Amino acid sequence: MQINLRKAMFVLPNLFTVSSIFLGFYAMTLCAGEPTPAQLNRAALAIFFAMFFDAFDGRVARMTKTQSEFGVELDSLADVVSFGAAPSLLVYKWALAPLGFAGLVVSFAFAACGALRLARFNVLAHRGEKGSSRFFVGLPIPLAAGALVSLVIAHYRTYGELTAPADRIPIAIVVGLLSFLMVSTVRYRTFKDVHLSPKSLLTFAFLCIAGLAMGIVTRASFVMVVYMAAYIAMGLAEAVFARRRPTEEVVAALPPGVRAEIEADEALEPDDDDVPGAEKEGDEYI
């Protein structure tokens, strides 16, 4: 009985992953044919909820001590479906289909870049090349999908149907930017180094209050758009500042105390040492 219970526990985290796949598949069925704005909104919500299942499968595996290579591979396949193919089809049907072949290419680029990012991660993980767990290398595919679905949800809640042709080009640019960021070497913080402290609690409270105020002043659906945009912008800003870090010659000429401070600053670590081997899209390794 105890052995059977142990086997059943191995199934539990995989059920979370399969639930994420189901929601991605459900989103694609809603986007098939000529979907209405309401159906596209439901598809976006399905992908949004898939993010929750994806976020908790790794945590459940660690809590039950049922981590496995099978779970890692299954999660990567789930991410391609739920956060690669489903958001690509959604944004194509929602905004990019009238652009013709160009819209098809931009939509496909999102799915392709997401798959490339996952493949890069899997190769590096299998080689055992583990980098800092404080950073993602490239924008994680669930967050890229979250940025897209938050746009769809916010637009539907505010305007309903997307009718203005001029709005489609900016959306295509956003999709292209998200695709590029997924395969780039821009580092995004995992916030795994954040510990419970008065400063962290104050920051969290400020973000919650700011989001609440924003939702009251505008609409609640805009809050997620702003949070996603702020996270993406933060990674880009850190990448720009990191390229301006002092060279080795300049650092060597500094006083020992200043030099030690620079070397201890994780944001100034060389990019070459930060390989995404200690991270995971669906949180198996985090």
UniProtKB/TrEMBL annotation:
EC number per UniProt: 2.7.8.8
According to its record, how does it sit in the membrane? Multi-pass membrane protein
Which subcellular locations apply to this protein? Endomembrane system
Q: Which reaction does it catalyse?
A: a CDP-1,2-diacyl-sn-glycerol + L-serine = a 1,2-diacyl-sn-glycero-3-phospho-L-serine + CMP + H(+)
Q: Which residues form a coiled coil?
A: none
Spans through the membrane: 9-28, 101-123, 135-156, 168-188, 200-218, 224-242
Task: Tell me what this protein is called.
Answer: CDP-diacylglycerol--serine O-phosphatidyltransferase
Q: Which organism is it from?
A: Anaeromyxobacter paludicola
